[in-house]
Amino acid sequence: MKRVKTFLEMIKFEHTIFALPFAYLGMVLAARGWPTWWQFIWITLAMAAARTLAMAVNRAVDAALDGRNPRTANRPIPRGEFSLQQTWLFAALSLAVLILAAWMLNTFVVRLLPLAVLALIGYSFTKRFTWLSHFILGLTDGAAAAGAWAAVAGNLSGPLPWLLWFAVTVWIGGFDLIYACQDVEFDRREGLYSIPARFGVAAALRLAQLCHVFTVLALLVVGLLAPLGWPYWISLALVCGLLAYEHSLVSPDDLSKVNLAFFTVNGYISVIAFVGTLAALLVR
Q1: What is the pLDDT of residues 217-244, one digit of tens each?
Q2: What is the pTM of this model?
Q3: What are phi and psi of 229, to 5 degrees?
C-alpha cells in the first residue's frame, strides 16, 4: 500500500480532475443527459487508466531528466523511493485496465484504442524533437472528451465531439505553455524543445492567452450547436473569468504563482464546465 501511495503521489493522480470532467462532458452530450451506469463506470475507469498509463510512462521516460532538473529532482524515482521497474509495472497494469474498459464499452472504442495508446505513450518523447509538444499533449488529453462521446454514441459523427476535442486541446496546450515557462533555462541547456525555450516566456504566455480564447470560442459553438440552455452559459461565463484570472497570475517577470494557475484554477474550470453542461441538459 505504501508503494501504491507513492506511485499515486508521483503521477499526481488527483490531477485526473483536469481531464475527467471534460470526458464526462462528452459523455453527457452524447447521451443528451446521464448515460447508463455501466457506461459511466467504464468511462471513468478508462479515463483514469489512460491518464495513469500516460503519467507512469512520462515519469519513467523522463527519470534521468527529472534527476538533473532542480524543480523535479525530488520526485520519487530520482530520489530512489520508486524504481523504474515498478513504474513500468504500474504502466502495464493501467494499460490492461484501459483495454478491459474499452472492451466493455463498444467495438468502435476498441478500434480506436491502438491510436489512443500510441498517443498516451508517445507524447512523452515529443519534447525531444518538436516544440509543438504542448499541443501534442493537448491532443492526447483532448481525446478524453471525444473518447467518452464515442463510448456512449459508438461513433464520432457530427461536429460536437470534434469541437470538444479541439476545445480541450487548446485549453491544455495553453496551460502547458504556462507550466513550461518554469523550465526555460533547463530545456535550453538539455536541448529539449518547448515554445518558451524557443521563442521566450513572453511569447509563450501570449500564445497561451490565444489558446484560451480559442477554447472559449469552441465551447461557445458547442453551446449553440447542442443547443444548451442558461446553466451552460453561466458556466461558460465563469470559465471565461477563471481563464482571465489564470493569466493575471503570471507574467514574464513573475512565475511564482504558476502552480496556482496550473493546478487550482484549471481544476475549477473543468468541473464548472461539466456541471454547467449537465445542468443545461437536465433542466431543458
Answers
A1: 999 999 999 999 999 999 999 999 999 9
A2: 0.94
A3: -90, -165
